[in-house]
Specification:
alpha/beta; eleven-stranded mixed β-sheet; four-stranded antiparallel β-sheet; 13 helices; globular
Length: about 600
């Protein structure tokens, strides 16, 4: 197995992004208001999963600068005193009412017109809440683990956003939260909608930001993104247990966490009660700081609510816990669709990476069905869902096909098959992005734009090429294999002015050899003198194929790695080879500091 490198981070944040606005009185007033509404005493509740009943209030998703999905009955909800009558009135003339139930919860459906800005909402009950600067447009959920959360300010080309001013592009960034039961209301008191400016752009996910920005500029309508990202989290954490309890990989993840929790508790004087008590104390401290007008933990990081790491069954790796804290509280906010960037945590072994495909399908199906049901059928039951294929990582490819240690190749194939099998899904290919050392590469901007291409074509009907060449089928012709592709755009090409060199070919003996590959229209013809009777081809089958001469279309979009064989990707009787986060070394730190973005064909659309 190849040597693994360390993970280190370089901050490329311009000075203008780092400056804290000390005179931001409006943000402080809003923070104080939220804290007071959450708890009039400024202290944590006795049950952190249940909001305090303090009269009419709304989730943080409903506030100044918010955006609602156009041409839809949008769900608006909140809390009030039991049986309180609530009326929601919009500046565009729509109005609707509901009565709070015995627990104080209420929900209404509010019609929205076509896109526009300068609107307002008035929510009236025992008091009146006014929401200003409401936009109507397109709203997308952007969820996943740390590479979905990785900020624009810490990424390549951050300086290009230093003067951005797009007031009708709205951003909602959630703090990390998890819980062992579904949360009715987020604990984050600082989460709020923000118009796009240099500061909000810098703190936003670079993938989500560039996705939303491209949509906004291409569609010329207001666009909103809701960022829900949590570092180091497995897909098992992002959906309820009952949705996945019959899946072998999910059961294994749960069993592992249960064993870890027991080890953490045995003989160390620890208990769940002590962890929960410590959490409550930290939550009270957080609430008090926000109530006092504090917004920053330090110069660069905002205050965030606390979270539990031990025991493991209360932590962020446990099945359902991320869903409970990040997704449950925001459903069924009106959305057009979702983009997803997660999978590194589920690619430590080949068996885990193979299982990921079925898990991803299960997650997509549940998000769609539950959002549709909870929204009264107004969010589409098959809303578009696009996901990020894992980029390149580890040293560049030197073998025709890497084996069981190339677990990310297996995950990429799992995602590719999901994109083919599930309607209204798509995959943003990222093998020409990444880093040979860092798990958090800086060159994520192309991935965000590629997500936007998928949406612009598949959702909004724009006349563009949504992705790179897609493998369709193979035909064996003597000593050659002819591969057919669609999505070739203006034609296929190699990334560099030389022959394609990322294709491998094998005969019935399953021995892989580098192949000669030539483009012929919408086909690639593959052969090798070493394989007179070929049966299968693999393309870019490695952890890091980025430095090979890859296949693109002339719109500058890369082909996905693929295989034409159905041979087993691992032997279930062999011990699983694990790919772990690398150890830190001075050599790896130097490599990270000196990293320059890879050359790739320019995207032209």
């Amino acid at each position: 197995m190849k040597t693994l490198f360390t993970l280190t981070l370089i901050v490329l944040l311009p000075a203008s992004f780092m400056a804290k606005a000390e005179d931001d009185k409006a943000a402080q007033r809003q923070a104080r208001r939220k804290a007071a509404e959450a708890s009039p005493t400024g202290k944590a509740t006795s049950d952190a999963s249940v909001p305090v009943k303090t009269g009419l209030r709304l989730p943080s998703l409903f506030g100044d600068h918010m955006i609602l999905q156009q041409n839809m009955k949008n769900t608006i909800w909140g809390w009030a005193d039991p049986k309180e009558q609530i009326t929601v009135t919009a500046s565009w003339g729509a109005s609707t009412s509901a009565q709070a139930n015995a627990d104080g919860g209420w929900k209404v459906l509010l019609d929205t017109p076509a896109f526009g800005t300068g609107h307002s909402l008035k929510i009236t009950g025992s008091k009146t809440i006014e929401i200003k600067d409401v936009a109507i447009g397109e709203v997308w959920l952007c969820a996943g683990q740390s590479n979905m959360g990785w900020s624009t300010g810490n990424s390549a080309e951050a300086e290009l956003e230093a003067n951005v001013n797009l007031p009708n592009y709205r951003i909602f960034k959630s703090a990390r939260e998890h819980w062992h039961e579904p949360l009715k209301e987020k604990r984050d008191l600082l989460g709020q909608w923000k118009p796009c400016n240099p500061e909000s752009a810098a703190e936003t996910s670079v993938v989500a930001y560039n996705f939303g920005k491209k949509l906004h500029l291409a569609l010329n309508v207001p666009v909103g993104i809701i960022q829900e990202a949590y570092a180091g989290t497995p897909i098992e954490g992002w959906m309820p247990w009952e949705v996945q309890q019959d899946m072998a990989q999910s059961k294994e993840q749960k069993a592992d966490m249960d064993r870890s929790a027991q080890r953490q508790l045995d003989g160390k004087g620890e208990s769940r009660e002590k962890s929960l008590a410590a959490f409550q104390s930290e939550l009270a401290d957080y609430n008090a700081k926000v109530a006092a007008g504090e917004t920053m933990k330090n110069r660069a990081r905002a205050l965030q609510p606390p979270y539990i790491t031990k025991p493991a069954d209360l932590g962020n790796q446990y099945p359902a816990n991320i869903f409970n804290g990040m997704i449950y509280p925001i459903r069924p906010y009106g959305i057009k669709g979702a983009i997803w960037y997660q999978g590194e945590r589920n690619s430590k072994t080949a068996p885990q990476a193979v299982a990921y495909g079925e898990q991803l399908k299960r997650l997509i199906s549940y998000y769609r069905s539950s959002w549709h049901e909870l929204s009264g059928g107004n969010v589409a039951k098959d809303f578009p869902f696009f996901f990020t294929q894992l980029p390149s990582w580890e040293p560049p490819q030197t073998q025709p096909v890497e084996g069981v240690a190339a677990t990310w190749s297996v995950n990429r194939e799992s995602m590719r098959l999901v994109s083919m099998e599930m309607p209204h899904t798509g995959m943003a290919v990222g093998i020409d992005c990444g880093d040979p050392v860092a798990l958090h590469p800086q060159n994520k901007k192309p991935i965000g734009i590629r997500h936007a291409y998928l949406a612009l074509k598949e959702v909004y009907g724009k006349d563009i090429v949504p992705c790179g060449p897609r493998y369709l089928r193979q035909k064996i012709e003597g000593s050659k294999i002819v591969l057919e592709f669609d999505s070739i755009g203006s034609g296929m090409m190699a990334a560099k002015p030389s022959k394609l060199d990322a294709f491998a070919i094998a005969g019935a003996d399953k021995q892989w050899h580098w192949a000669d590959a030539e483009i012929a229209g919408n086909k690639v013809i593959v052969s090798s003198k070493e394989v007179p009777t070929p049966v299968a081809v693999r393309y870019a089958w490695a952890m890091n194929p980025s430095q090979r001469n890859l296949l693109y279309n002339k719109e500058g979009l890369p082909a996905s790695p693929f295989r034409t064989d159905t041979w087993p990707l691992f032997d279930p009787n062999d011990p699983a080879v694990r790919v772990e986060k690398p150890e830190k070394t001075d050599e790896a730190r130097d490599a990270k500091r000196n990293f320059k973005d890879w050359e790739r064909p320019k995207m032209t659309q």
